[in-house]
Automatic annotation (TrEMBL):
<protein>
    <submittedName>
        <fullName>Glucose 1-dehydrogenase</fullName>
        <ecNumber>1.1.1.47</ecNumber>
    </submittedName>
</protein>
<dbReference type="InterPro" id="IPR002347">
    <property type="entry name" value="SDR_fam"/>
</dbReference>
<dbReference type="GO" id="GO:0047936">
    <property type="term" value="F:glucose 1-dehydrogenase [NAD(P)+] activity"/>
</dbReference>
<comment type="similarity">
    <text>Belongs to the short-chain dehydrogenases/reductases (SDR) family.</text>
</comment>
<feature type="domain" description="Ketoreductase">
    <location>
        <begin position="19"/>
        <end position="200"/>
    </location>
</feature>
<dbReference type="Pfam" id="PF13561">
    <property type="entry name" value="adh_short_C2"/>
</dbReference>
<keyword id="KW-0560">Oxidoreductase</keyword>
<dbReference type="InterPro" id="IPR057326">
    <property type="entry name" value="KR_dom"/>
</dbReference>
<dbReference type="InterPro" id="IPR036291">
    <property type="entry name" value="NAD(P)-bd_dom_sf"/>
</dbReference>
Amino acid sequence: MKADQPHDKQGLQMLLKDKVAVITGANRGIGRAITQTFAAHGANVIACVREAKPETLEWLGSLAKEHGIAAQAVSVDLADEASVKAAVRQIMAAAPRVDVLVNNAGVASGAIFQMTSMTELRRLFEINFFSQILLTQGLARSMTRHKTGSIINIASTAAMVADPGTLGYGSSKAAFARATQSMATELGASGIRVNAIAPGVTRTDMFDQMTEAARDKLIDSSALKRAAEPQDIANMALFLASDLSSFVTGQIMRVDGGMV
């Protein structure tokens, strides 16, 4: 099966049948690939997007029809704490339980250390870290009541590889990766697993924002000598969301083509 094709239910066990999965940043890039893959494996999906546009609703409707699942959109602005809290209330009202949460939404910004403004640094942390923690706190309550759940945080190899210009973005993702381990430690007693995925350079909107030189440097430093496709990340998310990874928690899973 090609990397850019989602696993489907033909000839494969439906790994997430009847589970409820919440995915942030669900309408493009990695989030879209994860949403499609989860739906193909039988999950009822709640797609968190900044704005539920008609094309997003049409796409979710087609997923529901194709895979026989429920799919709905929830609007949330991760730069607005009130919006995050409202989204938690809407999700909890719509779903009797949440089995999987994928914190995928985020923003990227590049500037060298001396040119990084405090305003931009705060914006990056608000969206990439603080809002994700707030959302997870709210939805983890449902998982705790049901004594089960898988939380998947999308970090980045930028959290570990200190390339020039990545102070803000890399630091926000490093904080998220570290928080993943604390969450895993504290929520494990309630049967909740928490892991992070650290993608390398991936063909998304952020890929297009990078300079060609920066992309080539990262690709050349990997063993497989190519950029990741969103489906590569979705496949790891499927593993972590499913019972195949029932004894995996507190891990930062690098999906970077072998950046050694």
